[in-house]
Amino acid sequence: MHYRNREVELVRPGIGYDCDVLVVGGGIVGLSTAYAITRAAPGTRVTVLEKEPGPARHQTGRNSGVIHSGIYYRPGSLKARYAVRGAAEMVKFCAEYGIAHAVTGKLIVATERAELPRLHALVQRGRENGIPVRELGAAQITEYEPEVRGLAAIHVGTTGICDYTAVARELAHASGAEMRYGAEVVRVDRRPELGVAVRTARGDVLRARVLVNCAGLHCDEVARLTGDDPGMRIVPFRGEYYELARPELVRGLVYPVPDPAFPFLGVHLTRGIDGGVHIGPNAVPALAREGYGWGVVRPRELAGTLGWPGSWRIARRHWRYGAGELRRSVSKAAFAQAVRRLLPVVTEEDLVPAAAGVRAQAVLRDGTLVDDFLIREGARAVHVLNAPSPAATASLPIGREVARRALAALASAEG
To answer: Would you say 141 and 119 are in contact if contact means Cβ atoms under 8 Å apart?
Structure first.
């Protein structure tokens, strides 16, 4: 591959550094990391490289805007700890900087008897994670959502919504970092005794003491560019959304009971900060890392996904689940049928296509879907290798943890 050619050495003794820490990726995790570094160590020179013309163009700006409570995640995991902490911090950050947000609460609704044990398990998990949960019978559901039907539900009061794109912009500004947009990294030259240099697609070269990889959908590629084996592969899953033509049917946030075998939350109803109601997402394989529609195909990226043994093991393990997701992707009627489990009055005509998102899901060689945040270190490098939902909610604590590791690497390099 082209980035393996090292005909020019970019890092040489006697060459000055353009910054202390170079962050690759201008999504909410990269920007939170830059913010945390400059807060923890004022005077540290931070540069953020983002290949798009502005911040938050992928996972950050294409999610449903939910501030997750942390109820779904295994007690003691990074997701559980950082989501619970991050939710409170995100509300405070939005209030401090005047960013649109609201603490709305949400319902998780069981519509079949087989889901009731899983709903009860969520109650226990919520309590273990320190999250207040109210159990509801069928009649009580309508107190919160008059049009929603179910056998039982739980109400989680700490869930909210916000504008994550606005959060990302504020983090970029408040960090004081140098932001370079339209700066796609195509080559990395790392010398443990000297530092790291990157070349962008425009031909610019930047030299830093430490590199932080927050490249999201491309984080495994950046890790390999750096010379580190990430031990995983990003397998992209597209989430397709509709907007509800009759938003008055839904007051807040309504979720199904998730499938514990798959790290996706299922088709849910989300009243956003703008008052509109999004429905989705489903989860189908994307044919490109940024494959926001079936028509977006990048053969090299698709070949990389298909060549990863874990992809085939996922397919064999979860083919039945995947078949249902694919059916809902190609059939609006099937999607509407899934929505009617929660919202019986909805019709196909109520569903208006909306922008899709792509989840950067880390998959191990054996087909394991990485279910926690994954941060690994190399010489003069820190790699964030799995940060899908609830990473936006948890971005402030994640940023502090990545910043801690980056500053430790910086201190070690200077020592």
So the answer is: no
pLDDT in tens, 73-127: 999 999 999 999 999 999 999 999 999 999 999 999 999 999 999 999 999 999 9
Which of 405, 400, 394, 408 is closest to 40 using CA atoms? Answer: 400
Residue type for position 75 = P
Q: What's the confidence (pLDDT) of residue 415?
A: 67
Alpha helix (H) residue ranges in 66-183: 78-97, 116-128, 138-144, 164-175
Radius of gyration of the chain measured on its C-alpha atoms:
22
% of the chain surpassing 90 pLDDT: 89
CB-based contact 240:356 (threshold 8 Å): yes
Ranges under pLDDT 50 in the chain: 1-9
The amino acid present at 333, given as its one-letter code, is A
CB 84 within 8 A of CB 71: no
What predicted TM-score, i.e. pTM, was given to this entire model? 0.94
**29 within 8 A of 384, measured Cβ to Cβ:** yes
Residue 370 token pair: 């990485």
Residue 1 to residues 85, 122, 225, 273, Cα–Cα distance (Å):
41, 46, 10, 44
CA angle 356/358/360 to nearest 5° reads 165
C-alpha–C-alpha distance, residues 213 and 372, integer Å = 17
Cβ 26 vs Cβ 52: under 8 Å: yes
Helix axes 164-175, 28-40, angle to 10 degrees: 30
Q: Which tens digit of pLDDT belongs to each residue from 350-386?
A: 999 999 999 999 999 999 999 999 999 999 999 999 9
Residue labelled with tokens 């940024």: 290
Distance in angstroms (rounded) separating the CA atoms of residues 402 and 213: 10
